[in-house]
Each structure stands twice: as C-alpha cells, then as structure tokens.
Amino acid sequence: MTLPTLIPASKLPNVGTTIFAIMSGLANEHDAVNLSQGFPDFLCSEKLIELVSRAMRDGKNQYAPMPGDPILRQRISQKVEKLYNLNIDPNSEITITAGGTQALFTALGAFVHPGDEVIIIEPAYDSYKPSIELFGGKAIPYALMAPDYEINWAELEKLISPATRILMFNNPQNPTGQVFSANDIAALRQIIIKHNLLLISDEVYEHLTFDGLQHESVLKYPDLYERSMVIFSFGKTYHNTGWKIGYCIAPAELTKEFRKVHQFNVFSANTPVQSAYADFMLDENEYLKLPNFYQTKRDYLLQSMHGSAFKPLVCKGSYFQLFDYSNISDMNDVEFCKWLIINHGVAAIPLSVFYTNPPDDRVIRLCFAKKEHTLRMAADRLKDIILM
Length: 388
Ligand SMILES: Cc1ncc(COP(=O)(O)O)c(C=O)c1O
Hints:
About 40% of the residues lie in helices and about 15% in strands. The protein is α/β, with parallel strands linked by helices. It folds into 2 domains: about 20-45 and about 290-385, Aspartate Aminotransferase, domain 1 (Alpha-Beta Complex), CATH 3.90.1150; about 60-285, 3-Layer(aba) Sandwich (Aspartate Aminotransferase, domain 2). Helix 2 crosses helix 12, helix 3 packs parallel to helix 12 and helix 5 (about 100-110) crosses helix 11 (about 250-265). Bound molecules: pyridoxal-5'-phosphate. The site of pyridoxal-5'-phosphate has 13 residues, from helix 5.
C-alpha cells in the first residue's frame, strides 16, 4: 500500500535548480572566470553608496509608501517625459518594486486567470514561463532563431487563440542581444490592438543599445501604452543588481490592479535605496553614458576574442554577447558549457535553457558587464581552444 504523501503535488513540476546556480557553482568549484550570470563585477558609483548611507542615517529605514517613494516616482515621470515624450502621473501610473522580476511576477499575478494563454518570445528570461504557470496560465512560446533572432510577426500572430490574454515582449532582448526596431513596434502595436491583448514590456536594458541604435520604448506609443505594463530595473542601470529595485509604469486602471497584488506580495520596496536613487537620478549623465560604456565593453570582448574559433553573433544591445562554437565541438550546449568550465576555466550559459523547445544550435551566452581584466582573462582562455 502506498501511503498518501504529506507534500502536495508541485505547482512547478518541470522547474529544477536554475542553470545560473549550476554554472556558478561549477565555476566556483573550478575557479573559472564567470561570465555566466548577468551582473557587473565592478563597483557601482561611490556617490550612490554614500546617498544610501546618508538616507539610512537620516532615518529612512521604515516602510516606504506602498507605491514607492513619491520623490522617486516624480523623478521617473520626469525622465520618461524627457526620453520618451510621454506625460505620466507619478501617483497613479508608477509603482516601485523589488526589482524587475517582482514587477513581472506581479503584473502576471494581476491579470493571468487559470487557462489564459500568454505569448512569450524565446529564448526568454527564465522567470517568464514559471510565473505564468504559477497563476494557472499557459505560456505559448514563439521561437527566435539564430543567427538573426528576428520576429516574423505574421507567424507570431498565428499563435494567438481566443484564450490569449497577454503578450510578453523584451527589448533590448536577453539573451540574444537583439534590439527590436520601430518596424517591430509597429507590428506589435497592430497585433495588440487587433486582438485586444495586454502587453508586458520588459525594458530593463533600456539604456543598453549600441552603434547609434535608439531604444524603441513602448512608452513612445501612447495607444500601445494604454494596454501595457512597462517594466524597468535600477539594478541594470546603476550597476547594483543586488539592491533589487525596479518599477512598473502602466495606465492608472492597470496600475490599480497591479498594486492590489503588489501590496500583498512585497507591500513596499527598500526605503533608503529608493531615496538614494531619487537623488542620483538628477544627474542624467549617469544613464546617458551607458550605451557608450557598455559598447566599449562589448567591443573589448570582441577584439579580445578576435582570431578564436568562436564565431560572434550580432549584439545590438543588452550586456550579453552570443558565440557560435560549432567550429569547436558537436557537444550539446549544456555539456559544452560544463566542459568549458572544467577544461578551460570559463563559465558561460547555454542558449538552449532559454527555450521550451530548443533548436539544435551550438550557441553560448557570455556576459560582458565585467572589468576589462575579467574579459581579457576569459578571452585568453577561450582563444586557446582550437578548431575541431
Ligand atoms: C530580461 C530581464 N528581465 C528582468 C530581469 C530582472 O531584473 P531585476 O534584477 O531587477 O529583477 C532581468 C535580469 O537579468 C532580465 O534579464
């Protein structure tokens, strides 16, 4: 006789330990240069650290208002007006969150009902699918394909069914480094309006576009914004991903629902850090310099890898660079990444883990949000690997 188990069935039966934990664990074990996870290995601004300390000393240590520090929200609305020419009400359209991931989770929690379908564009940030599933929804993947990772909008539209409620869009895109154009946004806009969908637009890499490309924020398109929740992350902008502060911009009606979930999810985000960001945002140069800052790092990595057997794919934005290793090995990408750590001391992320149905590609992702010394060390090791 089998005894009834005390533990109810898993709500996420297909989710295991994330590849990031696995690769970082293996990287530590083998003392590898870690270009796997997406975070800087350099310090954030000393001034910002000082502002947080000052906020703490000034007694800003208790709960922030549920929607976020009012001055921070005001500064965000000024930034949005300046960059995207959209006038938003800081009181009813901006909510400060504990990072972009929480904002994504809360947006899905507010609107996904059991049985709803949510279209995601893969390879996708790994929180999307499990978050949809936790709320009883079904993720419907559209697969971007190497080497261009372009969207065929007519094909994507075929995935829409009477159960489709939401489309999730990420621009600039992790992990591909793709930056979608004004033409893409025009196609997206047409689909969202025609099928009466909600849009969750993940723009955490808004400042990381290269070679003169402009970020096409959904906030630039008022009739698209009307149906959107747009997600940002201070951690990505100010080099402190561990501080976990982000925000969601959405029209008042959507924000009202978003906050119903937010208030019982985290209630409010870290007070002194919000206060510090509010002051730090006054210097717009801190974010305007980012395209150049990260483009220099991308180019440094590419130059350092020049002459290696790895083939770089086009990186237009984000802080990830893809490399094709088909000239080196037939191994699948997960095995290849483990082999890279153990035999060559460099940790990368296999692209297949970002897909529901991975194509049979030989592509890995490297994060270049690192010091030049780190990038050089990784490239020197990778250049030692010769053609098959
Ligand atoms: C596409 C994308 N969205 C959201 C996030 C999460 O942002 P945060 O660190 O603020 O939670 C990340 C972080 O890697 C990301 O790559």
